UniProtKB/TrEMBL annotation:
Signal sequence, renumbered to the chain: none
UniProt cofactor(s): L-ascorbate
Keywords: Dioxygenase, Iron, Membrane, Metal-binding, Oxidoreductase, Signal-anchor, Transmembrane, Transmembrane helix
Location in the cell: Endoplasmic reticulum membrane
Protein name: Probable prolyl 4-hydroxylase 10
Pfam families per record: 2OG-FeII_Oxy_3 (PF13640)
Transmembrane region(s): 20-43
Reaction equations catalysed: L-prolyl-[collagen] + 2-oxoglutarate + O2 = trans-4-hydroxy-L-prolyl-[collagen] + succinate + CO2
InterPro entries for the chain: Oxoglu/Fe-dep_dioxygenase_dom, P4HA-like, Pro_4_hyd_alph, Pro_4_hyd_alph_FE2OG_OXY
PANTHER family: PROLYL 4-HYDROXYLASE 10-RELATED (PTHR10869:SF196), PROLYL 4-HYDROXYLASE ALPHA SUBUNIT (PTHR10869)
Presence of the UniProt keyword Transmembrane in the record: yes
Amino acid sequence: MAVKGRHFRGLSRKSSNSTLLFAVFIGFSFFVLILLAFGIFSIPFTSRGLRKVHDLSSISHNAARRRDDDGGRGDQWAEVISWEPRAVVYHNFLSKEECEYLINLGKPHMKKSTVVDSATGKSTDSRVRTSSGTFLSRGQDKVVRTIEKRIADFTFIPVEHGEGLQILHYEVGQKYEPHYDYFSDEFNTQNGGQRIATILMYLSDVEEGGETVFPAAQGNFSAVPWWNELSECGKGGLSVKPNMGDALLFWSMKPDATLDPSSLHGGCAVIKGNKWSSTKWMRVHEYNI
Ligand SMILES: *[C@@H]1O[C@H](CO)[C@@H](O)[C@H](O)[C@H]1NC(C)=O
């Protein structure tokens, strides 16, 4: 009798334990369902996870996210915009102060831009590039050094592989026809070898036009969320709209170290406003200054 009673008590505890366990399980399931319903978290295996390489429609439209009242650089985030060419936009790469600082450094020294003559390796005047510009020296002051260090951290290319920053100014009607940043001559690759990547930093907003356009990019260009804001020129390829503080990084060479013809890019004519930008070209090897 005593044995039986003990057995009965034991069984009752076991069954109440499993009831409790079941209740906890049901409660937890409801909790998860509620979180999913309110979008507090999502299962990663969605259409975003299955996104195709050349699908440009899932790029988010972030222009409105910049906070003007932010004294610093605001939210920073990187966005892959294309895999062919490999191109990334890093939002709020520079602060407003850094943009203004670079413009003021360049302003007194602006000269009509030239292009490199591939036959002679010399700079020549050109109708394909109508902006004006100037070169800064690598590491010329503390602000420049800070920015160059940031570029190295972001691109994984050491500061020593970079050419000096170039400051560029495009007024209404000024543009840069599509071209490659890599060289097709022997002369220009003697110091530092081929150009591997370019980072283009927008120092100002542009009211209309002035996009950076990649006419040879793969994908459906018109699927980008900012399509309706682009100029005619901007609609000729995958385009990035200038946005003060943003940086566009693209690669002139593929991961297999061959040149990437899809890196063809141009600066669309400014239609309204002024475009200030800064470019750094990075080399395969150390670049001596
Ligand atoms: C390209 O994208 C646009 C906008 O999403 C769409 O209307 C159009 O049908 C697409 N074109 C092709 C060829 O997929």
